[in-house]
């Protein structure tokens, strides 16, 4: 399984990369939504994306909208991982096509549980 970690915080990229590697994923990490779109276009396709909301250039919500425009990318699982805890924003992300929503700070067990529920473990 392949994971794409998308976060402008280097510390968060490190934490998420380690978490996913410990769960057996091959991980690529990028710093914004634009780089993430490029990574998906370049392939191989990730099975799951872990997506920060607030990033420069292209934010996480914009990235989700981009991914959902392309039918060839419909099997990619999209998991928002963000400090945006407002109910309205959670609803917006899910409406745009996110499958899951994790609020920072999180424990690796939360990520593991969500991935298991999504059938990715
Ligand atoms: Mg951020």
Automatic annotation (TrEMBL):
Residues 2-119 form the Response regulatory domain. The keyword Phosphoprotein applies. InterPro entries: Bact_response_regulator (IPR050595), CheY-like_superfamily (IPR011006), Sig_transdc_resp-reg_receiver (IPR001789). Keywords: Phosphoprotein, Two-component regulatory system. The modification 4-aspartylphosphate is found at residue 52. Gene3D superfamilies: 3.40.50.2300. It comes from the Bacteria. The keyword Transmembrane helix does not apply. This is Response regulator. It comes from Mobilicoccus caccae.
């Amino acid at each position: 399984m392949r994971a794409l970690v998308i976060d402008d915080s280097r510390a968060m990229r490190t934490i998420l990369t380690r978490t996913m590697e410990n769960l057996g994923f091959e991980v690529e990490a990028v710093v914004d939504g634009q780089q993430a779109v490029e990574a998906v276009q370049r392939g191989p396709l990730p099975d799951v994306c872990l997506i920060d909301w607030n990033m420069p250039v292209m934010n996480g919500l914009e990235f989700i909208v981009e991914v959902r425009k392309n039918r060839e990318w419909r099997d990619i699982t999209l998991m928002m991982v963000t400090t945006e805890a407002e109910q309205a924003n959670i609803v917006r992300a899910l409406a745009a096509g996110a499958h899951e929503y994790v609020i920072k700070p999180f424990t690796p067990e939360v990520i593991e549980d969500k991935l298991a529920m999504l059938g990715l473990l």
